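Example complex used in Figure S2.
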Amino acid sequence: MTTINDIAVRVQQRLEEETGPPGVFWKYQDEILPMIVEAMNEASLITGVVQVAQETPLTLPADTTYITMPTNAVCLLYIKGPLWVRKTDLYSLDQLIPGWENDGGTTATTPVTQITSWFPLGTNRFGIYPKLSAEQSVQIGYLAYPVTVAPPYTGTEEVPFQQEFQDALEQYAAQALRLKEAGYEWQAGQTIYQEFLDTMRTLSVFQSRHDSLVFAGALGARMRVSPVEVR
Amino acid sequence: MASPGNGYKIANDVLTEMSYHLVEPVVSTTVTSDIPAGTVTAPVGSTDGIYVGAMLIVGTGGVQEVVTVSAVGVNNFTATFAFAHPAGNLVFAATFPVCQTIDPFFTQQEMLNYVANAQNDYLVRVPFIYTTVAQNFVSTQRTGTMPDDTIQIERISYNGKALREQSQTSMSMLNPGWNQQAAMAPTIWYEDRTGYMTYGLDRVPLNAFSVNLLYAQRDSGVLALTDGFLLPDPFLTYVKYGALAQAFAKDGEQKDSERAKFCQGRFDTGVKIGLQFYKNMMAQEVVGAG
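Predicted assembly (521 residues):
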């Protein structure tokens, strides 16, 4: 698999730098590698790559409605436990099942061993319905961080994107690095970012084959947990 | 927020990336012999970027700490350490040392403030982080105070049942005597005309009770070098550009309106990407519940 070292060399070539560490005008480990990770982060947010089907089961605790997301997850995509758990939203639960938060739990007369619904709640949490009477192991799928380590990066981190993304990642990193030049190269490079966005939109069309949750398209959306405006 | 955050990066990681964009050196060295806890002079491989008043991160893991430099010598600096550090321990930080002894372009605290502001600005525009808290009310109490880190209340529930959000204005139009009604379980909450960071409930029980708030959360307005972030790492790109926009827009030799505009544009595009991301995150596969 391609590593960020492989892309870093090609970024250096675009910048007319000597290839490999330590770098001349741009430090290899401290500047070039982080900009490649930045490119991967943005590509991931726009296209919905990298999706992870977690091999290790996630344990849902008993008597709990709101669950903290795994550390490397940005967005939960599905839960299976072992049956497919339906995705809903907080507003629908409130409207369709008033008092739903009281259902289930350790004091339920009929023990709840399987959740029936889950709902997203920002990037840090998700909710389940009903509360479990005892902890339950489920399989989850989620959109993950492209790189799951803290800086400084070693360069051996894998690039979890297909080949067709890599040219755009190189362009993005080179353009971001030129910011400190503040000269003609940087000004000319500003259009490259727009090209990067266009490429990501195009590639997200192909990603729609992998999952119906495509993360591109027209920009702009509602931003509340409830889809209905109250006032 | 206190370290660790929701991701892997800490504030210093974002400051380091900003330093390179601003052509500011970054401290990256090691302790060259063992040092005890207390106020000591620590020998280091290099003092590049270290100045009196600079905050440095020393060590890793459980003994990692932020120290403030009180003196700088030849290949050493003096600071007060809470932990002992063996030779080889890392000493690092984005210190923004250019012109520190004369008229600094930037200070560390200033840059940390820019980063904190940018993150909170992003969270206001794209409220990605939610938390819940129970609040207790005494008998007949009708209004409550929002937690300090509230951006907006999303939902209030009483005994596990969501209250309906309505305005005092509309309730008054429907029933001018709405706030004189007999005691019973709350069914409505409102936040108009209630004052700063305050919300109200319509109908309250005779006895003490509690409600659960679910609200969009902001991060602390003050970050330390080792603090994590509420936002996940992939979104910190936009926080960085938001902070850079503030740095480039600052008066002084570093002022660069063109780059400030570009960085602000990147932040704004990041907001649009965040909003689209939110929309897709909330997308329903099946409408309904239960």
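Chain B touches chain A through 71 residues (CB under 8 Å). Confidence is low (pLDDT under 50) at residues 286-290 of chain B.
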